[in-house]
Amino acid sequence: MSDYRFLIDEQFEGERLDKGLSLLTDDSFSRSFLQKLIKDGKVLVNDVTQKASYILKEDDEVYFEAPECEIAQILPQDIELDILYEDRDVIVVNKPKNMVVHPAPGHMKDTLVNALMYHCAGSLSGINGVLRPGIVHRIDKDTTGSVIACKNDAAHNSIAMQLKEHTINRKYRAIVHGNLKDDEGTVSTLIGRDPKDRKKMSARVSEGKTAVTHYRVIERFGDYTYVECRLETGRTHQIRVHMAYIGHPLVGDMIYGNRKNPFGIDTQCLHAYILGFDQPTTGEYIETCAPLPDYFKYLLEKLG
Questions:
Q1: Among candidates 81, 86, 68, which has minimal Cα distance to 25?
Q2: What dihedral do alpha carbons 190, 191, 195, 198 form, nearest 10°?
Q3: Residue 49 covered by a domain
Q4: How far apart are CA 42 and CA 36, in angstroms?
Q5: How many domains does the chain have?
Q6: Has 140 been annotated as catalytic?
Q7: pLDDT tens figures, 81-107
Q8: E strands within 53-206?
Q9: Cα–Cα distance for residue pair 171/116, rounded to 1 Å
């Protein structure tokens, strides 16, 4: 038997318990199998049994036991990591473009988790389940930059609490379409699932989670603007959704922007630049800076 533990984030909030478990386990188990586990009282939410129709909320803790599943066997891989900071509790890496953060069916190797499992030699927190050891937060496959992972459950709980309380300093660099009117500003909306496309998020919803993004213009290039975005909250796709919402989608973002660009960029121009946090054991403030990737620097040179 294997233990499965998950801390629900905003991505899975609002899902039924049975569907949410199916998504959380990346379809490793059938929906009927999960429904039977729930019916038999073997799935706990915050240490209490619930029905399959229970609606998941952010910060719910879900636990169940199930037979070993072949899909959960993740192999450590000797993949080079660009390490920005590391101690006995946490590791911060500069994730490259096109690297998936954690494994999923059909993509069980070459992920950041595979690399972390090799580098950390099994010392990763287990709170977010067997497919996401050490992972507290994620960035998109095509977004580059800083990602923090935790080596033990105490560190995981500390970083998760800092994320919840919005005390982690997260600054991104982005290149957007258009010339922003103001040198700096704040976008504050609700963000929720797009009712027309559940794979997308939307700021044009009547129900959702409060999302706040602060932006600052770094340089203007006429039809394009180089900006810094600071996250006050951390909703799924927040910067991409917010910049599109104010009419300045990210260059290369074909999901939320759908604008052509002449630079041959095949991904959204978004980079997690600064990551600052309190070290889980000592409380010391740690701040890392991830250098801009080559494609980003190339585009800045072309624009400049």
A1: 68
A2: -170
A3: yes
A4: 9
A5: 3
A6: yes
A7: 999 999 999 999 999 999 999 887 667
A8: 61-66, 83-86, 90-95, 144-150, 169-177, 184-194, 197-202
A9: 23
